[in-house]
């Protein structure tokens, strides 16, 4: 199978099962959202794919070849994660050149130009950056590395709204010019909803959804209005959650709306991805 | 004047003017959004209010009394910020008791209950927390401290969507039961838009807007559609920004829409706060 394939991957840390028999395929040239709560296992998965951690069971393949201790495969994969692996006292511009040593297609010119656009001085030291600028530094690396599989772990942490918009714009422009596989793990779900095509939801180490955004959003709907009327409509239906405020209630349902049996005065809307995620992953 | 008042406050760091003659009032029992780009001066302002930094010029008053080196005033003010001031090896449950020493109205019982609800073990050490849980720890302190002025600097950094929703819910519940002044500095503007009543926008150390959310949102509107028609409508009007995608264009305008002179086929919508913010603060 082409693309990156996880086959029965499990990983435990002491008494916590971080990944539980995960089987999953990241296909070529698609943009994925990897969504999960804090602690769900997202970072563990990304660290296993990029050889920073080894699984207890199962394996990860790239185009059918195991990625473990496979330099050829690792050269096709880039991960930006919470931990940076750069020497702390290294300057940004040196870090760009250093990255090119390991990833020959890294575009130093583009990295310099993006640094300027994001207002990141390339004379700064890697360890002197604020949370927002550390994220910007890593996002620039990911946008310039030019490998087929790029994993973005929290690419907008600490970024202001303007810089988040700029990141999404550059990601889509790059994808449009020269498609690659981007896997974006983020908590800002509603914002990224228009950027991603495929959605993987992980809960307590297990994949609970793996489908296109449109399929997933088509699975549910919301009904709002007078609490009594909402209750009468939702009785016997597949309710995944409710919110109440005073006498008003919003219910989140799976399935297709049944307009015929819906009481007067209720408002019917589509599901928004973040609300759906919250309802699917709440404990 | 009651509330917290900044009078002509300026602060420079080397060659950067972080705050430039800021005059501003945070009134009693209101919820403010303090919005600005990374580096705009938000944290400097909060650190001056809470006595962690001193201004070069101007002063901060609480109910007419200077707050500088004024323990009585500082006992009325609580700031959660990027830096925690707790001893690193202290456990969460000890930190709750320690906070009560300085803030006698701190509700230790409620803090324990919130920690459980957010899934934060109170046996953990303060310096062992991930970004998300460090934020949760600080948010819990702020929700339990029971002082009249609480400043939240990035209260949702690293929080998953479920925990962000839980934070907004607890904030509004507390405010409803026992009003206080909450000042929320955040980059997640659209999410907080329904929580805040008053908006202060800071740009390069100067206050550029200070008004109610409804007034601010009423200042602008957007027009989208065929680029040529959008261009013909916006000519001579007060345009604060545009986005283009293929032959489509969205324009952000100040003022009231003039339906009479709007070409057929254009879509008119209200301004969303995050889009408005981006347009007002882009360089």
Automatic annotation (TrEMBL), chains A, B:
Pfam families: ABC_tran. Residues 4-229 form the ABC transporter domain. PROSITE patterns: ABC_TRANSPORTER_2. Gene3D superfamilies: P-loop containing nucleotide triphosphate hydrolases (3.40.50.300). This is ABC-2 type transport system ATP-binding protein. GO terms for molecular function: ATP binding; ATP hydrolysis activity. Keywords: ATP-binding, Nucleotide-binding. CDD domains: ABC_DR_subfamily_A.
